[in-house]
Fold:
Amino acid sequence: MKFLWPTMLLWLLAVPALVAAYVWWLRRKKKGAIRYPSLALLKDALGPGERIRRHVPPLVLLLSLVTMLVAIARPTAMVTLPSQQQTIMLAIDVSLSMGATDVEPNRLTAAQIAAKSFIEEHPANARIGIVAFGASASLVQPPTRDKEALLAAIDGFQLQRGTATGSALYVALGTLFPDAGIDVASLSVPGGYWRGSPERGRKLDPSKPEPPKVAPVPPGSYNNAVVILMSDGRRTTGPDPLDAARMAADRGLRVFTVGFGTAAGAMIGFEGWSAYVRLDEETLKAVADITRGEYFYAGTAADLTKVYQSLNSRLVLERQSIEITSLFAAAAAVLVLIALTLSLVWFNRVA
Structure:
């Protein structure tokens, strides 16, 4: 349990002082009883149970005060609640490296099977959109609940040269925030606003408008949509995915990343040339960390299916941090009522 106003807990230091004041008051009453023998005789007539019972209402009242002080500090707790996600963007790598056969029958086919399984099991209230990215990124299916359209979009994947991971994130952002003024073309197309570079996207044309400025919100705080990005290689063109991740984080959008392929990598060939490809886990982990998402590794087709199943279950039920001040306030009120009731029933007076 955490607290939004933890400094208010300092008021709990007053509790021992209240206990000391109560003990002092009892001792003062005891001295008064000694001065008046009739009161002392009345006290002796009370049994041990009665003497203990007289302290119960003040104790319950003290507990109510402690509970109220905790409530003032605004406690929060992690609880499992139905997900509020309404849109899920799947960004899937279709670069030539996805043709590698280190995952049977090949990476692309395994990714298609896993994505289809995700769609078949996805939350009924959520829409799914699909972004395919190679040398560029494109929205191959706008967010929809139509499973047939989603499955057809996945079946239509075609391998492309290049891996523009950052472009995929910008296309997803532009789809999820259509009114935010995000110029997807300028941000994501190589040769536009950003120079395609494996080192880092750099501004090419000063006449192009700067990316839109927004008042940042806490990363991971946007609950209406998420992005699931799956890639098997390193960015070779397009903007830096970390820049796109920061833009997503400023809007509170979480990005879950999936690294696919064997740890050793693979050699691929196409039209007379060959290249060695290997997973860039460092970048995928950084994207997930910046946006408060999570990174998953899948080394086989079965692993990838399990990752998608895990993500599906997370998007149906999510652990969220919620404020539980009202619960503590209600508990404090109940304790006060208990203390008053015991005093009236046992002693015919208010403690």
Q: What stands out?
A: The radius of gyration is 31 Å. Confidence is low (pLDDT under 50) at residues 190-206. Residues 325-347 form the longest helix (23 residues).
